Amino acid sequence: MSLRTIMGTITPKLSTATRGLATQAIPKTQKAVIFYEHGGPLHYQDVPVPTPGPNDILVNIKYTGVCNSDYHAWKGDLDKKPMLPLIVGHEGAGVVVAKGDNVKNFQIGDYAGIKWLNSTCNSCDFCEESNEANCPEQKNSGYSVQGTFQQYCIGDATQAAKIPQGTDLSKVAPILCAGLTAYNALKHANIKTGQWVTIIGAGGGLGSLAVQYAQVMGFKILGIDGPNKEEFVLSKGADAFIDFSKVTDTGEAVREITGKDGPHAVINFSNSLKAYNDSVEYVRATGTVVLVGFPGDNAALSSNIYSHINRAINIKGSVVGNRADTREAIDFFVRGKVEIPVKIAGLSEASNVFKKMEEGQILGRYVLDTSY
């Protein structure tokens, strides 16, 4: 079987509507990281360059962040399985090199980002109410459409992120998911300037960005993470830090810092089910617990019903933000209000980065340079 036959799901057929594309010189093949079975080998190989449809842009990806969701997609350990064969990735930053006839909001040469929401229907109740992440017709980069671990990637022009010219693409790439997710979670926390937010997993890629966004938004910040994270988390703007490995009662330690009533909100970016269940107990009455990190399929949050009712606490899930959230999250980055320490590896080194992720060796975010 030929490569082009195997990769039929990657390259859409050239339709009449896309023959008038405005293009730069674009190669017919490109390098990509692809797998054919969940948990199987990650192949660094040549694949066809896709052709954008009438409403799409083709982005020459320069850098792409590596997210935990990419790892889960590769492993196939989520309830809803992604397509196969698959090129993962949804934090791709690059340059527009081609666009469909209907695209008016991007020009060739513009900087653009391909994010988790690759496209949405824009007409359902969820989209009309700016809850685009809940659109039933959404397509997701690196899951239901081919992702950004390749040199050229397609994105719907409506959902693609605009990135100002001159932006460091290696550093803005993680903002397209990690930054957006962190920022959106804080907006869902329903807290005011000067109130306490506890951020669990504050030393990770999402958590460290949440600390910075929270500081800009004027919240008091308590970071929780493991050994060797305190200096890093405090340097990002946290007011206090708890090493969970050094305390026997996390709730008591949290209340000692935030006050006897507990924090106004807790955002969990970790995959610890215990951390989730603890947070429901120590969040203050009328406070909000925001669920972001993924403990695994069938993980269940435990909340005593009487206590939940009596304290009127709120438990909310948060995925990624909408287009307005994307614009705001990028703007904070461009203005130098947030940053994320990135380590750059070659696209060909993706399997090594996933191994480091498995071993918990990553502080900040890995970004893959697609040029090697």
UniProtKB/TrEMBL annotation:
Molecular functions per Gene Ontology: alcohol dehydrogenase (NAD+) activity; zinc ion binding
Cofactor names: Zn(2+)
Residue span(s) of domain Enoyl reductase (ER): 39-368
Record's keyword terms, sorted: Metal-binding, NAD, Oxidoreductase, Zinc
A biological process term (GO) from this entry: amino acid catabolic process to alcohol via Ehrlich pathway
One protein family per Pfam: ADH_zinc_N
Any Gene Ontology CC annotation: cytoplasm
CDD domains reported for this sequence: CAD3 (cd08297)
EC number: 1.1.1.1
Catalytic activity: a primary alcohol + NAD(+) = an aldehyde + NADH + H(+)
Family membership noted in the UniProt record: Belongs to the zinc-containing alcohol dehydrogenase family.
Protein name: alcohol dehydrogenase
UniProt organism field: Wickerhamomyces anomalus (strain ATCC 58044 / CBS 1984 / NCYC 433 / NRRL Y-366-8) (Yeast)
Taxonomic lineage from the root: Eukaryota, Fungi, Dikarya, Ascomycota, Saccharomycotina
